[in-house]
Amino acid sequence: MRNALAISGLDCFYGEVQVLHGIGLELRDGEVLCLLGRNGAGKTTLLKAIMGLVPAQSGSIRLRERELTALPPHEVPKAGVAYVPQGRRLFAELTVAENIEIGLMARNKGAQTRDSVLDLFPLLRERLKQRSGTLSGGEQQMLAMARALCLEPDVLLLDEPTEGLMPSMIAKIRETVGRLRERRVSTILVEQRVEAVLSVADRVVFIENGRNRETVDIEKLRADPALVKRYVGVG
Amino acid sequence: MAFFPHLLLATLEGLVTSAVLALTALGLSLVFGVMRVVNVAHGEFFMLGAVLAWAITTALGGHPAIGFLLALVVSPLIVGTVALVAERLVLRRLNYNPEATIVATIGMLYIIQQAALTLYGPDARPVEPPFSYRILLPWFGYSGYKLSIVAASILLLLATWFVLTRTKIGLIMRATQYDRETAQAFGIPVDRVYAGVFALGAMLAAVAAVLVVPISQAHYLMGLDPLLLSFIVVIIGGLGSLRGTVVAAVLIGLSDGIISVFFSPTLAKMIATLLVALVLVFRPQGLFGTAAR
């Protein structure tokens, strides 16, 4: 199977402190790859490194044939990587429609994309004129995902999309990730809790202290929950 | 003069001050809001605009209106270019670090000021207004040009508002203002936006200066007052808020006009400063600003 994204030997620093140590992983075409690990393991940093927001000291990040580490940060989304940051990071003062517009502008997508994205989140269609900061947490998460999907990305990066949401919303977001998987959007999903990924992920990469440990298929993980205990602590 | 005509005159003078101040302060506020840096050299861009207006009108000769209109276009363009070069050579290399930018723009202030002193000289020089029509009121005649400053300022403020809220460029600027990192993650070239905003801010100051120079005179030290008043306006109005900037400019301009006429200019400055202190104590985000997240 082809790789949508291939990372190898990636080292990243915050100032003097090394946060990522030679990370290497492959995202296959159309799969949902989950990064699982404790707080501070480097999951979010890895996503930021892919987006070019944290510079890579060494190593490579390849989107198909394209080397992303050589691009300035604002060219990475144009190459086809969309990012749903942790904590949503909406442009809170802007309306729902304006947030979506910014997503569309990134790769010059038009009304057709907008419609198909809004079909995925019908709730947002009723709120287009509302200031996005006044949406509920779940609605904000939907908007953050909608904004990213407006890029029609080849690779989607999702950073803890269910964090801080109520259970009914968590179910909805998970359902959406499932639907994206059916659409064959290659996705990297960051989570802290394993039960959040069992139903949607294809493979799981465990991240520990800025290094990637085992990569396991989801069936194996379902069969052997002890793995999770080892890397994430509470299972 | 009786009380009412006196008040009317003071109000008109205050409105002219407000109009010029609103444009100048809006430039500072945009830079402050989008880039989160304080541009101490803002007043010098104002001065440069006025001095260039003198140079252009003098070099051209002929009817004052032709020179003035040319200055109104060319002077802001030159000032914008100077600001763009300064941004690329200095601010970008400092990575827009707030403290370093303050020190660097203080340096720019002196460089621009001394360059003006060297090339333009220490004299205050007048620029002829483009027209000298006087509006005759029952009590006194009033300069039609001064009222046209108010009109021009309103037009420019409306244009800025339109660009900020109704165009793609404005959307990009606002997105950059609210979240620089996420803006980058959506393909917005933040450093180019910064360069553009810095140049735009300087150009607004330059336009204000060209408008005011026929009624004040160009001088190499004229940048100080607009800088201080702009800071006052931005603090009172709220960081990066267009509405707040305009309201605060009108407030400060009018009170300056009216208090100066009935009491003394010093009292006007004292009240403005007191207002800043009160705003900083009781509403640090400004009248129309939103608290930083």
From TrEMBL, chain A:
SUPFAM superfamilies: P-loop containing nucleoside triphosphate hydrolases (SSF52540). The keyword Transport applies. Residues 5-234 form the ABC transporter domain. Pfam families: ABC_tran. Keywords: Amino-acid transport, ATP-binding, Nucleotide-binding, Transport. GO terms for biological process: L-amino acid transport. Gene3D superfamilies: P-loop containing nucleotide triphosphate hydrolases (3.40.50.300). GO terms for molecular function: ATP binding; ATP hydrolysis activity; branched-chain amino acid transmembrane transporter activity. It comes from the Bacteria. Belongs to the ABC transporter superfamily. This is Branched-chain amino acid transport system ATP-binding protein. It comes from Neomesorhizobium albiziae.
Automatic annotation (TrEMBL), chain B:
It is found in: Cell membrane. The chain crosses the membrane at residues 15-38, 45-62, 68-90, 102-122, 142-164, 193-215, 227-254, 261-282. Keywords: Amino-acid transport, Cell membrane, Membrane, Transmembrane, Transmembrane helix, Transport. GO terms for biological process: amino acid transport. Its main location: membrane. GO terms for molecular function: transmembrane transporter activity. The keyword Transmembrane applies. InterPro entries: ABC_transp_permease, BCAA_transport_permease. GO terms for cellular component: plasma membrane. This is Amino acid/amide ABC transporter membrane protein 1, HAAT family.
